[in-house]
Queue: 4 jobs
Job 1
Amino acid sequence: MSFVVAIDGPAGTGKGTVTKLLAEKLGLVNIDTGAMYRCVTLECINKGISVTEEDKIKDILENIDIKLIKENDEQKVFLNRK
């Protein structure tokens, strides 16, 4: 059986802290959507894509490689194998 837990709320309310603690305690994967959004934004900046270029952004979303990996009790985010 699998399930997804989503915690939403305003910035600075402890969402990241709570999800990290829950993931560790329950042996779950903590998916940091904020980090994923930042990766997409960085990839668009690196490729000179404007927020108005929807087709190019869609192409980024279809081809981007984001990895969330836990190393030494720390979650690391890798963009396009870097």
Job 2
Amino acid sequence: MASRGSLAVVLILMMSLQMLSGCFGNAEPKPEVVDDDPFAFNKPIPDNVWYHYAGAVDATSQKAISEANLTVNLSGNNLPFWAEGSYYSIGMTTFEPTIGITSSDNLFISSWGNGPAGSTAMVRCSGLIEMQNLSDYSCENTYDPLFPVANSNDPYLYVDKWTDRIMKFDMHALLGMTVEWSDNEGNSWSQPPTVATSVYSVQDHQTITSSPYPAALHDSTWVFCINGNAPHPLCSTSFDGGATWSPEVSGAPLNCQSGGLTAHLEGGENGNFYRGNIGCSGDGYSIYRSINGGFTWTEHPLPTSESGTADTWNGEEAQVAIDDDNNVHAMWMGLDNMPYYAYSKDEGDTWSPAMMVAPPTQINGTGFPVITAGASGRVAFGYVGDSGGDVWNGYITIATDVFSENPLFTTVQINDDGDPLDTTAACGYNRCGGLGDFLDMGVDQYGRPWFGLSHNLAGDIGIFATITDGPKLRGDLAALNSLPSGGNATL
């Protein structure tokens, strides 16, 4: 064993060598080791992209996270991806645009009054989904039957997610609806059109969807609901792909006093149907569910006690989406005109706490909410927002793991700051230009969200907005292929 004297000599020599090491070469102090920054991408985050948690907490700010007393876990499916957004013009006007996506990678959007003889055009945009150059995509009207149906008050387009059937619904002066469909990407349309109405009720503000609920004469069951002569929506069902329809029945419990305006219907893989509406008591919002093909509906109140509900002219602000595992996702606007969200893993029987999903930037209010979902727990929200002085922009917010304790939200502004969609006072709270009463959203088979809306300042031109870069909402969690930026150059 070494003596204490020997140990002292060794220690003195080691200290001397450390001091002398600074005299030779350019030795620098070793930097402090810190955790890797999950937002240190290989390029800067764009100014109009935000990473945040519920309540507009900046996910890139440790101070904001600490002040909000959040525990965050950016792992698994809750990872951040570099993201950016843009939009692409369809070259035609639109009004209350509804959209659909087929498995052949075509995007469809309704275009009011631009079909033959003034009918509603069914516009097909090819090449958008996986384009490499802006010249790769083109949009054209596909609706050109021998006897086109006259233009309608509320045009509506829907693509069946299970059969690719494209449905064209036209409402005529509040008196009834006609239905046509195409099974070949819009190249031909069923004739003559089906009449889908009940004579005892006016027809207004229709919404249509499908699900694999068992049907005798078709691979999916179809349901539409309208604002009719009842204190709640009325709904009708087709078991033969739209050729015939059942008499309209109450789209809510019989004693419901919700009002008739209903948000977009959605069907799930399990055959259920869902829609959003004001609660039966006349306040709050609820999701209504049918498990028997649209013939009876039950009410499932949303957790709106803290958010309140928007005080806007239209009462259908509660939107719903169903992911690939039948989880239910709901979005609504609160009393502060901000977007709120909750999910249900038990078909709407219980809900998560409400989450405010707007980004940490100046947004004075939002409107025209839409929501869509892909794989389990992967959700996208679309809305317009006022960034100050009635400058209305379009926004897409995505989350890839809403079931996380604190899900990460990524929000992109789809238009440049100098290219607003509208500057009308209170545009997002009222019927506004080509936005009409509602917008629409969907996810393609590769996991990219698509948001159909209108560029009102360009003359109510229909546009498809999306994330040009970001995470997939379907399949293994990975980055989407990049799309070229579009924007004002495509108008």
Job 3
Amino acid sequence: MSLPIDLPELTIVRALTGAGPFASGDTLSVAFNSPTVGRLVPHGRSQPAARPARAGEAVLPETISVAVLVAAGPYAEGDVLTLSYVDPRIARIHASTPTSSREGDPSDEAAPEPTVPPSPEPGAETRASVAALPRRPDATANTRGVQTRLSWSADRVRRFVQVSDKLFTVDRLGWYRHAFAMRLLVPDEVSCGDSEADREVAQHLRALRNATAETLGRPLLAAFMPNFSVTPEWLDTLDDPAAARALASVRDVVARYATDEPNPCESDDPGWTHGDVLRSHLTIAPLANVEAALPLLIANVSRFAAVTEKLTDYRRALIELFGQTAESVETVRLKQMAQPNHTLDDRLWQLVGTVGECFGGLAVA
């Protein structure tokens, strides 16, 4: 039986206010399956407009107001919408002032959140043995292992610094502060040294990046609200089966090519960091736990020695502590993760300052 294909609706909007990479007057397309979440693609500035100054613009998630130019789904031409986002590619859509001609239309009611099929049962084992990990088909084809790369663009540096700074203002986040931080460090590239495997892992990596970007908005927005506390409902917004499936797929591919010898690639570009995924680290990253597996992909080596030091320290602490916590009974793990962890907090704080300093002020450009 074939499953129905849910094609996205597409509308064109014009920004009325600016924030992040968008300025007033920019034209964007918004594709959405659900009226509450959409993917953004900028098309350029429809009229001359100066980008607003960023002084005092550290409140995240960022929001912009837009006017609908092309009707689609529940939105009519002339509707004014608010888009909130942490990653500018994915936005949560809030209807601000629907047109009067559509008053009373049932489609104006809030649409239910899209449901995602549950991820497969992870199985009884939570720790894989080294012997159980699959080996690459041809052991002589590639001896350099699995390498990761991350581009520190001006927008990424700014967003990482601003989001991390904001996370430190919420005392009750506990370990979840670092779940958000590491999701901002998902690499741009993963290379296994095999062209077919690289194409496969690139597809899974895109799915992982999209899924982690989508999971940031709603829980982050809630965390910045007054009287925030970690509740089961809030935790449910962090539990994204799509991210877990994508990360498990990435892990399945890289496990065939990972080695036990550190061998990170080298780059002459100071705007990139790179790293490698060790086979031994894969044994402490259960498939069902996104927070325990994501640190393995962090590209931690830079031309800046200080960035390398801070990223390596933070990555090591994430791997060790989240790996240990993943072994605990769920109730114990959730209680522990709601408490502050001074080791992780200190290493993230130092990393944020070092990234902002070493990348030449790009974070506030």
Job 4
Amino acid sequence: MKPNIRLTLFFLLVVAAGCSLFEDQSPETLSFRLEGSAGTQVLAIYSTAFIAGLTETGGTEVRVFSSDSVLHTLPIDTVFDIAVDRQFFVQIEPVDTVDVDARVDIDGRNVLDSEGFIFPDSPWRYVYQFNQRLTEVVEVIL
């Protein structure tokens, strides 16, 4: 190998190492915030034990194997460890119609910032899976 090629390869490896190219980019924490009228109660169903995939009609189907149900009083501000499962599912069911702002951050990087109404007969759902593209139309099988 010619000296110039060796020097170029060495330089490229140094640059790649400095750019975090070799670092593990797997997610570790997920921060979930839901703000709305203070004092409003909602039922939240959380899970990291599920499978999800795209359906033939272009939606996302989620099959939940185990979950935690928590009755929250808004606002919600919580952090989940997703280092092992690398995925997260939440379903929010209000008692009455509620206007909310939802935010999800993965390792401090924002992946969702939305606002709107959640209706009692139409729960709000969010699904995150590392390195998989999913849709906002989510069908759930509990």
